[in-house]
Amino acid sequence: MNEMPTNAALSPARSVQDYIDETPIWPDGTSVGAAPMTTMQWRIWWLAAAGKFFEGLVVFMTGVAMPLMSREFGMNAFQHGLVGAASLAGILIGALLLGGLADQFGRKVMFIVEMVIFIIFLALLSISPSFGWTVAFLFGMGVALGCDYPTAHLVISESIPTSARGRLVLGAFGFQAVGALTGTLVGYLVLSNLADVSGWRLMYAVAILPALAVVVGRFFVTESASWLMVHGRHSEAEHEAHKLLKRKPQYPKHIKLESKHKPHSKEDRHPSALFSARNRRATILAAVPWFLQDLGTYGIGIFTPTILAAALGVAATHGQDLTDLIADDELAAEGAAAIDLLLILGVGAAVLLADRVGRIPLQILGFLGCAGGLLIAALSTYYTDGPRITLIFAGFMLFNFMTNLGPNAQTYLLAGEVFPTHIRGMGAGFAAAFAKMGAVLTAFLFPILLVDLGTATLLYILAGTSVLGAVLTYAFRIETKGRSLDEIGL
């Protein structure tokens, strides 16, 4: 292709998204079908994807690490619940209190700060001296991950073409599943090579160096030009937009920005704005189905090794020999890793379909599929031996595939799309925090309810919440497929 001229210099001022969505043309006037991604846009994407990877890594690795923690600290069912819920409670607080700071201080600042906090608590966790400190460090690590929920979404969605927003945001989000699988595999490798009760510490420590590389990389990304425009910093916005869209051959050669949004008052930026008549529907759609989805996803995800160990007849006891404990933990980790593969396949399907089918249909279908998987897993309790194992594996595999095809992926995507720019971070942060209330509840109560109610009853309840999620998604639906963030925010 020859030098590709554009009419940027001749056209009136436009919004940041207009420039990002602009496509080059051939000399004969033929337009290119999509806007090619620049080096900076891909850099932003990879560094945001890394944050989701670390979330999946440390949260789901806790399920493998927990039997060893239990042996070292002599944990009871209540303490198991605290460990499972600690990082999720941190995510709740981080998303609620820090997520909105991206609207105030900028996307890039919080993009860096959250990873620094994560590394500090990750390092402390690997040398934790007691059970109480372990819970505290898991919580602190979760705070950083909670900030990442809205921030990572915003730095991607405000920097990429509308036509690719769905699949690229979900592609980054899919690294949560890659992290979950990696965390399970890391746990398995540590168990296989270190027959020591303190092996769980090494599981977390292996993430420190990769996380340091990510935080360094985040210093070398652009600030969101859309955010700068909302805050009236026009010259900075034009400079950052030019850096974002730097390519060879260069287009557009000249960037002159204007805002499509009216100035916003302090009242417009107050948390109460999420519940105004204009934004209430978006808030309900972003938050409530995500809450219902997290009830199942984190309960099943964290405690898959525990459930599998029980299903396979190798549930650990306090009197169990350490060698047997590690062997049983390895066996459960192997099964969990096989099931976690379906998370990756599910989010892969979501990446392919989100910009074609739409967010709402996939979320509804996914919720119903999750209910079906949980019902199959519940039926396993009525069988023994081979049929029991087959049903529980089939149920959990279907659940993992459908949750990442539908609600686990689409709720995250929608939460960063349905709010206007000036409260997008706050809205996405609130939705993530509200969702993590469900995750904390299920992570804390799951080991207790497994004993009190039994596996079957608990799975039936979670199947019911999945059906409710499908109903509420339809009732409050806002489809964002193919719509620019400018259009959604007006």
How many separate domains? 1
Classified by CATH, the class is Mainly Alpha
Count of DSSP helices? Answer: 21
Number of strands: 0
| Order of helix and strand elements from N to C terminus | HHHHHHHHHHHHHHHHHHHHH
Low-confidence stretches: 1-10, 314-319
CATH level-3 fold name: Growth Hormone, Chain: A
Main sheet specs: none
Protein name: MFS family permease
Domain Major facilitator superfamily (MFS) profile: 44-481
Keywords: Membrane, Transmembrane, Transmembrane helix, Transport
InterPro entries: MFS_dom, MFS_sugar_transport-like, MFS_trans_sf
Question: What features would you highlight for this structure?
Answer:
mainly alpha; 490 residues; Growth Hormone, Chain: A; MFS_dom; transmembrane helix; transmembrane; MFS_sugar_transport-like; globular; disordered N terminus
